[in-house]
Fold this sequence. Notes:
Layout: H1 4-8, H2 12-19, H3 23-45, H4 50-57, H5 61-68, H6 76-83
Helix pairs in contact: 4-5
Amino acid sequence: MENDYVKSLTTWQDLKPQIGLEQDEWDEITLKVKIVGEIIEARQSQEITQQALEELSGVRQPVIARLEGNTSDPRLTTILKILRPLGIVSQNNIA
């Protein structure tokens, strides 16, 4: 039997009209969620710790943790430094 809390959970699509963001703001949120999800998935599937990713990328572990926890808004250059050693992005697929 579902409890009231589970019944009260809402999807992003349900929240969208209530929050009142512009489409470009929603697009930005959606892209950030996708990128962070890909970083986490790639790091975990390759069994790379945040500390090891720091060594591979040059981005400090606390920055990686904040990015994965969605508590920061890093620069694009920082995101690229993290994506490259994970094999998600390379010079060949940016253009």
